[in-house]
Amino acid sequence: MQTTTTARSDLTIDALAPAEPASAPSEPRKLLLVDDHELVRYGVKTLYTELQGVPLIWLEAGSLQQALEIYAREDRIDAVLLDLNLADCKGLQGLRHFVQQHPQARIAVFSATQDEFVVRQARALGAVGYVPKGAVATEMRETLSALLWPQGGPQSRGYAPSNALFPRFPSSAMYDRVAELGPRHLEILELVLSGCTNQEISNSMRLSLGTVKNYVSSLLLALDVKSRSHMVSLFR
Question: Could you read off the pLDDT of 24-47 as tens digits, one per residue?
Fold first, then answer.
């Protein structure tokens, strides 16, 4: 007598299905903090070891030159926090040099100064954000998150709010005109406001005196002022 045996499998459909790969942890984000005060650097990297569950790797530089060397040497740096006043570079010159050498860098100015003109000038020169040193922890976290994840972080939806990257100021026609100036005009404006004469600007920027005078005249026209002293008074 022939017996027909029906094979039965104890395996379920779920067991037969290919196993899904385990979700890889979010890749750490790397930031370069440029500040000539060691205590400030220590405080920032101690307070912010992670954001949205993602570990942060902090690189440190105490001068602009050191920062430029680190950025060129490292494979990937997601963002740079750049102090305005360093031992080897004052004001927005550091930002200008960094942008010129590494135009792909995402640089946020990291400063105790919250002057509207400086903020707008930094933005016009290529900064993608402005981080006040006096910001409370929640504001700092929001700004860093928007800086690292402009299209929304791992625990957020949609794009990061643009107002998280720059302080908000009341609308001002004059500052709107400043934002429309080109990089060279902004550089000369900065020197004028710091008290440099046309001759000193000429020597510093290696431009002819006549060229400097033309730039200053165009600044007066753009800002709708009648004299150099009047222009300076607007930003005091």
Answer: 447 899 999 999 999 999 999 999
Rounded CA separation 58/80 (Å): 10
- Side-chain half-sphere exposure of 111, counting CA atoms within 13 A: 25
What six digits make up the tokens of 227? 């004299």
Exposed (0-12), middle (13-18) or buried (19+): which is 2, by Cβ within 10 Å? exposed
Query: How many Å apart are CA 117 and CA 134, to the nearest integer?
Result: 18
Q: What size, in residues, is the chain?
A: 236
**Tens-digit pLDDT profile for residues 150-206:** 876 555 544 344 456 877 665 555 666 666 777 888 888 888 888 889 999 999 888
3-state helix, strand, coil in the chain (%, to 5): 45, 15, 45
Query: For the CA atoms of the chain, what is the radius of gyration?
Result: 26
Q: What's this model's pTM, rounded to 2 decimal places?
A: 0.63
CA torsion through residues 217, 219, 223, 227, sign: negative
Question: What token pair was written down for 117?
Answer: 């003109």
User: Are 186 and 219 within 8 A, CB to CB?
Assistant: no
CA nearest neighbour of 102 among 120, 127, 119: 127
